[in-house]
Each structure stands twice: as structure tokens, then as C-alpha cells.
């Protein structure tokens, strides 16, 4: 029967993302591009239970369905300008993975590292995240290779992963700061590799890419402010300092 399609539905988060990314600048465009981006889903409500997580570890990868919560207030438009096209060409929002969408829903397939309980709290540990810390998770599903993996699928827009366009080098000051932080490996897992993988993707706006640039940039990973500069196609990591 023809439903009243103007009806709205409410969603309650079942979990919250814990990720190294505390700002959108620098987050990879898709999951799996930075496998050093390790994090967790802290389960909430009735999903924070032995029953709900049972057998999840039978799967190597999971789908995370989430809300682009930081964009919800800004709303969405039917056409967008994908960064991959230099931010000039317009495309229909449904033809893209734009983070500004009709209901703000995102989906990322990530590697499952494990399911862990600490006290009464369940965590699902994952790697290859492309999500902000604090992102609300509305569902988790197992990645099912026989149906989710479509080898002959094609896309004229995004057939290949974005290339790593920058060669990343750490200055001696940054190396010394990494050394000092290595005592806190628990708090900053895979820090050097994460900085390298994020900066290799050249987070700068497309019109600046592949160009030298005298600007010094800052990127927030965990609670660390990483300062860097691009000269030719080399990215020099200048400083790694606690942002508090
Ligand atoms: N893989 C997901 C998808 O296809 O639905 C996300 C793709 S989207 C291009 C990834 C970008 O979303 C990130 O680079 C970041 O800029 C943005 N993002 C991540 N978490 C967000 C959040 N909680 N709110 C708003 N934007 C977010």
C-alpha cells in the first residue's frame, strides 16, 4: 500500500567510534587507505552485551553504518563537487560518497582486529578507519565476501584508490619527538606509520596538490598537533607536539 513517505524514523546509536582523527582535515577518503588508523567501536545500550557480540569474530571484516554527525546541521544538496574532480565539476550526490547526504548515513568496511570486554564495556577493535572520533554508529554488519565482493563491478568516477602523492620525511626534531612519544605506544599506536600514511595522501585542497607550498600546515591526530610543509613532492614533518 502507498506508505506516507514523508514519515520520519528515529535512529539510536548502538556504538561510538574511537579513532585517532579529532578533526576532518586529513581523514582518508575511504576506509583501508591508512591501515595504521586503528581504533574501536565502544558499544552502547543493549548492543553492549555478550549476546549481541557473540560470533562477530567469525568475520574478518565488518561494515560500520554511521552518521556523518558533524555535517548534519549543515544539511545537504542534491549536487556536490567531488574533491577527486578537483572540486569544480558538479555531480549528483547519490553518484558520490559525499559526507553531506540526505540522511547523513555513511558506510565503511573495515578489518576486524578483535572483540574485547573491559569491565562491563564491550569494544570492537578495527583498523583502516576513515571516521572522526565520536562518530555515532547506527549498525554493524559482517562483510560477506560472496555477496559484498563484486569483482566485475566498475565505476567511472572512482575505479582506483587515490595515489600516494607525497614522499614523507621526518625532520630530526620530529624524530626526537617520536622517540619521546614511543614510551606511550599504548596511547598512540602506530603513530609514525599513521602520520606517514595520512600525509602521503596529501590532505591539502586539490588545487594545491602536486605544487610546492610555503604554508606550514597542522593536522590533529590523537591529541597531537603535527606540523608539516610541502616542498616539491616531499612532505617534511616539522614537529609533533601535544595540543593540550
Ligand atoms: N566510507 C564512508 C562512506 O563511503 O560512506 C565515508 C566516506 S567519506 C568521503 C569520508 C570522509 O567523511 C572523511 O574523509 C571525513 O572528511 C568525513 N567524516 C568522517 N567522519 C565524519 C563525521 N562523523 N561527521 C562528518 N564527516 C565525517
List keywords for this structure.
244 residues, mainly beta, six-stranded antiparallel beta barrel, four-stranded mixed β-sheet, globular, binds S-adenosylmethionine
* Largest sheet data: 6 strands, antiparallel, barrel
Straight-line distance between termini: 57 Å
Bound small molecules, by name, code or SMILES, are: S-adenosylmethionine
What order do the SSEs take from the amino end to the carboxyl end, as H and E?
EEHEEEEEEHEHHEEE
Count the strands? 12
Set down the secondary structure blueprint:
Elements: E1 15-18, E2 38-43, H1 50-53, E3 61-67, E4 79-80, E5 91-92, E6 105-118, E7 121-127, E8 136-142, H2 145-148, E9 167-170, H3 172-181, H4 191-200, E10 217-221, E11 224-231, E12 234-242
Parallel strand pairs: 9-12
Antiparallel strand pairs: 1-2, 1-8, 2-7, 3-6, 3-8, 4-5, 6-7, 10-11, 11-12
The structure holds S-adenosylmethionine (SAM).
S-adenosylmethionine (SAM) binds at residues 24, 27, 29-31, 68-71, 97, 99, 106-108, 130-132, 135.
Give your account of this protein's structure.
GO terms for molecular function: tRNA (L-threonylcarbamoyladenosine(37)-C2) methyltransferase activity. It is built from 4 helices and 12 strands; from the N terminus they run ββαββββββαβααβββ. The chain has helices at residues 50-53, 145-148, 172-181, 191-200, and strands at residues 15-18, 38-43, 61-67, 79-80, 91-92, 105-118, 121-127, 136-142, 167-170, 217-221, 224-231, 234-242. The mean pLDDT is 93.
Amino acid at each position: 500500500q502507498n506508505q506516507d513517505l514523508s514519515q520520519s524514523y528515529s535512529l539510536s546509536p548502538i556504538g561510538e567510534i574511537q579513532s585517532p582523527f579529532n578533526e576532518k582535515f586529513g581523514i582518508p577518503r575511504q576506509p583501508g587507505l591508512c591501515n595504521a588508523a586503528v581504533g574501536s567501536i565502544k558499544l552502547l545500550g543493549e548492543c553492549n552485551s555478550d549476546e549481541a557480540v557473540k560470533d562477530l569474530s567469525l568475520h574478518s571484516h565488518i561494515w560500520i553504518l554511521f552518521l556523518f554527525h558533524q555535517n548534519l546541521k549543515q544539511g545537504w544538496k542534491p549536487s556536490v563537487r567531488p574533491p577527486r574532480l578537483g572540486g569544480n565539476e558538479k555531480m549528483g550526490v547519490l553518484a558520490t560518497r559525499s559526507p553531506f547526504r540526505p540522511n547523513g548515513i555513511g558506510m565503511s568496511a573495515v578489518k576486524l582486529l578483535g572483540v574485547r570486554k573491559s569491565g562491563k564495556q564491550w569494544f570492537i577493535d578495527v583498523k583502516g578507519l576513515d571516521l572522526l572520533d565520536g562518530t555515532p554508529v547506527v549498525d554493524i554488519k559482517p562483510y560477506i565476501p560472496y555477496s559484498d565482493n563484486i569483482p566485475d563491478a566498475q565505476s567511472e568516477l572512482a575505479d582506483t584508490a587515490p595515489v600516494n602523492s607525497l614522499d614523507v620525511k621526518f625532520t630530526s626534531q620530529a624524530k626526537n619527538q617520536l622517540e619521546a612519544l614511543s614510551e606511550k605506544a599504548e596511547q598512540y599506536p602506530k603513530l609514525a606509520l599513521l602520520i606517514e600514511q595520512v600525509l602521503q595522501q596529501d590532505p591539502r585542497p586539490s588545487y594545491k596538490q602536486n605544487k610546492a607550498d610555503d604554508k606550514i600546515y597542522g593536522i590533529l591526530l590523537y591529541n597531537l598537533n603535527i606540523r608539516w610543509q610541502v616542498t616539491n613532492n616531499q612532505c617534511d614533518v616539522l614537529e609533533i607536539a601535544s595540543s593540550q
